[in-house]
What we know:
Structural class: alpha+beta
Strand order of the largest sheet: 2-3-5-6
Number of strands: 6
Oligomer: single chain
Order of helices and strands: HEEEEHHEEH
Distance between the termini: 44 Å
CATH superfamily: GTP cyclohydrolase I, C-terminal domain/NADPH-dependent 7-cyano-7-deazaguanine reductase, N-terminal domain
Radius of gyration: 19 Å
CATH class: Alpha Beta
Helix content: 10-25%
Number of helices: 4
Number of domains: 1
Strand content: 25-35%
Amino acid sequence: MKGKRNRRALTGLDRRYDVEPTTSIDVRVLETIPYEYPEQEQLVEITTDEFTAVCPYSGLPDFGRITVRYIPLRKLIELRSLKYYLLSYRNVGIYQEHAAARILKDLRLLCEPAWMRIELDYNTRGGLRTVVVVEYKKPGYRVPEFVNRSALNKQQVRR
């Protein structure tokens, strides 16, 4: 009797939740503002612990910290629009590695930086922690030394 109850309790573990397609990612909300100091190389870092997407296989949520680092040339990412863009991933079924690559592609096309790096540090799930890092460098651009020495570039402690 006990064995039957356990089997009954475990039914539904193969359940799959509906997910939205990647076409639901709303790039149209992204905006830029002019960078008024193009002669000054500047490292911009934007971080949020509120990134969410869902596993395309199970529909279970993936939560993580996203860090966007970039060196602007003529345009800066407008922060409110970035927030809305990232929120559009909330119910989208996308693999973790693909999310990082897609965000890099969209933001790179948006602001045309000299250099950009996206780091997605996902919360541990099933005993596994995933960190995905993707990077873009404009052809011929030499990343300044201060990017490598920057306190922003050091390993951050997760809270």
